[in-house]
Amino acid sequence: MVLWVESFQRFCQSHAFWFLLLVYVLFTIFGSLLFMAIEQPQGNQFQAQVLEVRRRFLRENRCVQEGGLDIFLKKVYANGYRNVAILHAGENKWSWDFTSSVFFVVNILATSGYSDSNPLTDGAKLFCVFYSLLGIPLTLFVLSCLSDLLLPVVTRGPVRHLQTHWGLPRRQAALLHVSLLGLVMVMVLLLLPAVILCYLVPGWIFLDALFFCVMTLSTVGEGNYLLGREHSEEAQEGLEFFTTCESRRSGVGGQFDFSPGFFWCPFQTFGNRNESGIDPNTVGPPDKLYTFLPPLVPLL
């Protein structure tokens, strides 16, 4: 029995990060299911009230065509969420299904805080307070562990490869690595998602899509500027999932930006030096033999 417990402890220690990641995923799913269970009935009730008001209006005003009323309401709805004061009675399409709940939970954990996604009931608001107090530190801890695992792969490995296989000096290898990695991050985290959104969201130009990506990646959460409000339910859920993935990628990218050693360059060295400067046997950035460059990719 003792041997079994010791072997189990060794197994848990060797796979601690994956256990932590599994717990974090389950924590996110748990929060999403709980928000869905609490908020969906209230959301359905509000939706039924709005539909009843719409039906009563059509009965009392038979000269109004149903199709024309829907087109008018959609335009008012879309412009209302762009902070254009047309009517004060714009209703939200938030349905609190599982996708919407995951979207809300990820926005909380990523500290984005899109203002239109807010709990409707007192119980959900109280739970949200305690859930965020626990979830935000847990998110930062998980992202920190993930960045620690990936840093040797995306920093020291490529620089060592440039030194050993390309014959570049350590300084040039570091500068080339910083430039290429910064370019890749900008393309993957900003430009490519912005191009995709230009095709997915009607009426959006590249600047609109780029603005949304920057606001999401920087966890600013530009209030009412949400995706999918003029789409079908399936398309809206897909765009919410897209935003969820962007928020998670921004977390990993942000941890890289502010992790020591992600952007490093041997402009100044500390430690043992020979007469010619750096020890010629040193390959790659030693632990205490480099200084840090500031993040070259802003807002990531």
UniProtKB/TrEMBL annotation:
Transmembrane segments: 16-38, 134-154, 174-197
GO CC, any one term: plasma membrane
Potassium channel domain boundaries: 86-150, 186-225
Membrane protein topology class: Multi-pass membrane protein
A Pfam family: Ion_trans_2
UniProt keyword list: Ion channel, Ion transport, Membrane, Potassium, Transmembrane, Transmembrane helix, Transport
InterPro entries: 2pore_dom_K_chnl, K_chnl_dom
Annotated compartments: Membrane
Swiss-Prot/TrEMBL GO biological process terms: stabilization of membrane potential
UniProt cross-references to SUPFAM superfamilies, sorted A to Z: Voltage-gated potassium channels
Superkingdom of origin: Eukaryota
Molecular function per GO: outward rectifier potassium channel activity; potassium ion leak channel activity
UniProt record similarity statement: Belongs to the two pore domain potassium channel (TC 1.A.1.8) family.
Protein name: Potassium channel, subfamily K, member 7
